[in-house]
Amino acid sequence: MAFQDKLKKLLTEKNMKAVDLARSTGLSEAAISDYLKGKKEPRGRQSISIAKALEVSLDTLWETGFQETKKSPELTEVNSEDDADKHPLLKIYDDLNADGQERLMEYAEDLADMPKYKKCSDFEEKAIG
Q: Which DSSP state fits 15?
């Protein structure tokens, strides 16, 4: 499910409107509107704020356990109570409190922005495009 669809679904389930979410998160109504239209997706801190306002985990917000993704299947988690099926990074994330999860997201975003740590295909796409 696309993020925008998941966000719409959660808003409906929580009986919230976009303006309510904006107020709860401190994000602008324009940003929430962009997320709902699929123009943008929230990054670390924004995701955390949205998840807290909707009273769901980041896993639920981003559906990290779903199997449709092909981008990073090694990080998907099998729906099981057994932690042996979880990727070690997800185990670490789950063990952190909200502040630790936020710091981990920020660190991951910083790494993702560094060309040194990008997969080669990212460079090829940028060079072509």
A: T
